[in-house]
């Protein structure tokens, strides 16, 4: 599997080091990165007080989803932010989720990791742009389409590493003995063109830490 959530908590593997069954692959450290991603959004928008959370309840196993919600709720409280969770269970519910976010007068949007939302990333970014909202995302691909900011593991790198597992298994290795690989490469991408369009001035210290600045 590529980009698992929390494979141990979700019962997919016995442990990271020794999966023990017929599943192995890579994890994207979803819940662990939520506080960092939300803190970066707050750093870029110091006056932020209300944030809309776009999430997909069925994106991962129950434990991973539960941890994602717990992490964003705790991180928001620590940053003095009021979160509003808006669920989209499928592509048809994305518009309704955004309507809920707008109705709650959110000043920014925080997007959870999800393969469904990622596949709908162009539409998600277009909706956010339509409402002139700054937003942070779990992958650089959103920022490349016009989202303000992205921070997370490199999806491209996770897929590249999956080829390593395919190769090993084809050569006779057992998934049970191949450790689940956690990401070591994380990317902070800031779309400065979007920031200007929103009338935002990104703090110089935040820009200096970015791995890529889109002009």
Question: Which terms summarize this structure?
Answer:
Rossmann fold, single chain, 7-stranded mixed sheet, globular, alpha/beta, about 220 residues
Outline the low-pLDDT stretches: none
**CATH architecture field:** 3-Layer(aba) Sandwich
* Alpha-carbon Rg, integer: 18 Å
CATH superfamily, called what?
A: Response regulator
- Residues in helix, %: 40-55%
Tally of extended strands?
7
**How much is the average pLDDT?**
94
The count of helical stretches stands at 9
Distance between the termini: 35 Å
| Major sheet size, sense and barrel closure | 7 strands, mixed
H and E order:
HEHEHEHHEHEHEHHE
Major sheet: arrangement of strands: 2-1-3-4-5-6-7
Q: Into which percentage range does the β-strand content fall?
A: 15-25%
Structure notes:
It is a single chain. With 215 residues, this protein is α/β, with parallel strands linked by helices. Helices cover 42% and strands 15% of the residues. It contains nine helices and seven strands, in the order αβαβαβααβαβαβααβ. It has helices at residues 30-44, 62-78, 94-103, 115-119, 121-130, 140-144, 155-170, 192-197, 204-209; strands spanning 50-55, 82-87, 108-111, 135-137, 149-153, 186-191, 212-214. Strand 1 (50-55), helix 2 and strand 2 form a beta-alpha-beta unit. The protein is globular and about 55 Å long.
In terms of topology, how is this protein built?
Layout: H1 30-44, E1 50-55, H2 62-78, E2 82-87, H3 94-103, E3 108-111, H4 115-119, H5 121-130, E4 135-137, H6 140-144, E5 149-153, H7 155-170, E6 186-191, H8 192-197, H9 204-209, E7 212-214
């Amino acid at each position: 599997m590529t980009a698992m959530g929390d494979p141990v908590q979700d019962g997919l593997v016995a442990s990271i080091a020794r999966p023990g069954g017929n599943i192995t692959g890579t994890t994207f450290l979803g819940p662990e990165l939520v506080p960092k991603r939300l803190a970066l959004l707050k750093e870029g928008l110091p006056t932020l007080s209300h944030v809309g959370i776009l999430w997909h309840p069925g994106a991962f196993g129950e434990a991973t989803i539960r941890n994602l919600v717990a992490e964003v709720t705790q991180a928001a409280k620590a940053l003095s932010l009021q979160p509003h969770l808006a669920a989209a269970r499928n592509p048809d519910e994305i518009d309704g989720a955004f309507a809920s976010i707008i109705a709650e007068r959110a000043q920014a949007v925080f997007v959870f990791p999800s393969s469904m939302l990622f596949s709908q990333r162009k539409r998600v970014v277009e909706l956010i742009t339509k409402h002139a909202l700054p937003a942070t995302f779990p992958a650089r691909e959103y920022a490349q389409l016009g989202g303000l900011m992205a921070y997370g593991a490199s999806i491209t790198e996770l897929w590249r590493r999956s080829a390593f597992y395919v190769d090993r298994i084809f050569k006779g290795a057992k998934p049970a003995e191949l450790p689940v690989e956690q990401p070591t490469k994380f990317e902070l991408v800031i779309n400065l063109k979007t920031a200007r369009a929103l009338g935002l001035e990104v703090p110089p210290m935040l820009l200096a830490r970015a791995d890529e600045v889109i002009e």
